[in-house]
Amino acid sequence: MADPSSLIREEVRTIARYNAGLTIDEVRRRHGVEVVAKLGSNENPNGPSASVASVLSAFHELARLYPDPSGRALAAEIARGFAVEDGQVILGNGSEDLIAVICRSVVRPGDTIATLYPSFPLHEDYTALMGGRIDRVVVKADLTIDVDALVAAARRKPRMLLFANPMNPVGSWLTPAELDRVIAAVDQDTLVVVDEAYAEYAAGEDYPSAVDLLRDTPLNWAVLRTFSKAYGLAGLRIGYGIASSAALCSFFDRARTPFNTNAVAQAAALAALAAPGHLGLSVAMALSERDRIGQALLDLGYRVAPSKCNFLFFDAGRDATVLAEALLARGVIVKPWKQPGFETFVRVSIGSPVENDHFLAALAAVSPA
């Protein structure tokens, strides 16, 4: 058979396949363990609220018909929550789908996109697929965001300023004053995109949603959220974006597939929004456990990044892939980071107390004496 590589665009050939992590069944088959703590993908161990079950009971009818291509009922509910117009909301097959949509809409070959580093890999990959160039703003030695460097990157007038706050994989965040500084440095020809996939875990006086700080500026912007994390709907793939205007949102709409969110996911997300109590309990457990696991990692001698997310990023002091494999053999899935300069770091999700105890016991067993 002929080698197909010559048919493939160079931008596709040069990016790495996304590291989606292992499934529980894969680890059971590979290592012969029965109990597995899946702590590599930042899922909510509590799962969705009970109200979502009523949606699944109507699965037959939801599956039979094409979904609302705009998800109008869900978009209207999201718009009310953010005090924006319905037309400013766009839905995606997870928020990463919207990163791809925005990059297809905005990034031209040779354009520069500024982002924080280490990054959620798809921020860089979708830019590269469109022929864009990456301007990385690396975290400081203490693993906090280098605000001065981010401001400088904004002043270089990139085509797009795209970053997560709080940031994935590190967990660090911009305070209201810091985010204000960054926004003030942005030129009107730059699109600002803030990925807030973990915002529900970050709420507090020292964390701002970019929607609140951007809404009264003359800038073009988009803020991305997801139902995959705190709402427990990772398997249904549903996320959303808030855009600065309905006009900008309409351009993004042209770049997405017509039915990019399915009917079951739309209905489940509506049910999840109607159960704030479940969300609150899930977030409270994650924050409590995050503090406990963070202190345990410090006690074991690891360097741990500050986090506003449902995960912790720590320096294993050795090849993180080797540590991750040792943990897999003990039934624990974590995510070794593979971006250059951070190959000794591991991102571990905050699971249930039982899962977290499983992780700590396994880590202690493979940690240097």
Quick recap of the structure?
With 369 residues, the chain is α/β, with parallel strands linked by helices. The chain is 41% helix and 15% strand.
Per-chain topology:
Blueprint: H1 10-14, H2 24-31, E1 37-38, H3 51-56, H4 59-64, H5 72-82, E2 89-92, H6 95-106, E3 112-117, H7 121-129, E4 133-138, H8 147-155, E5 160-164, H9 176-184, E6 191-195, H10 199-202, H11 210-214, E7 220-226, E8 239-243, H12 246-255, H13 263-273, H14 276-299, E9 303-304, E10 311-315, H15 320-328, E11 332-333, E12 335-336, E13 345-349, H16 353-366
Parallel strand pairs: 1-11, 3-4, 3-5, 5-6, 6-7
Antiparallel strand pairs: 2-8, 7-8, 9-10, 10-13, 12-13
Helix pairs in contact: 6-7, 6-12, 8-9
Overall mean pLDDT stands at 94
Number of DSSP strands?
A: 13
Strand content: 15-25%
Any idea what the radius of gyration is?
20 Å
Query: Could you say how many structural domains there are in total?
Result: 2
CATH uppermost class of the largest domain: Alpha Beta
Name the CATH superfamily assignment of the largest domain: Type I PLP-dependent aspartate aminotransferase-like (Major domain)
Number of helices: 16
Global outline? globular
Strand numbers in spatial order across the main sheet: 2-8-7-6-5-3-4
Range of helix content = 40-55%
**Terminal Cα separation, in Å?**
53 Å
Low-confidence runs of at least 5 consecutive residues: none
Q: What is the CATH topology descriptor of the largest domain? A: Aspartate Aminotransferase, domain 2
Class inferred from helices and paired strands: alpha/beta
Oligomer: single chain
Characterize the largest beta sheet: strand count, sense, and whether it forms a barrel: 7 strands, mixed
SSE string, helix = H, strand = E?
A: HHEHHHEHEHEHEHEHHEEHHHEEHEEEH
Q: What is the second-level CATH architecture of the largest domain?
A: 3-Layer(aba) Sandwich
